[in-house]
Amino acid sequence: MIGMDFVSFLILLVISVAVSLVLHFALKMQVRAGLESFIGKVIWGWIGAWLGSPVFGYWFAGWNYQNVYIIPAILGSFALLILMIDLVKSVKTTS
pTM above 0.85? Predict the structure, then answer.
């Protein structure tokens, strides 16, 4: 996954934007309101989606493009975003 092509990058970006939209606007899981927080979620969500297949496994061989497996990428994006939101909120409340 280190040397991915542009289509793989775009698939991970679309997954990240979709998961970030759900968490930021639909579920209101925000550290701060605003566009900066959403863009931060998109960046961290992309990293989570990128790590999703190697961490969660390679499921559903029909739902993949090269080494990007859709369901593990969605789970990875959700997992890292929820972890980051919780981490920042817990550090913010203890300070």
Answer: yes
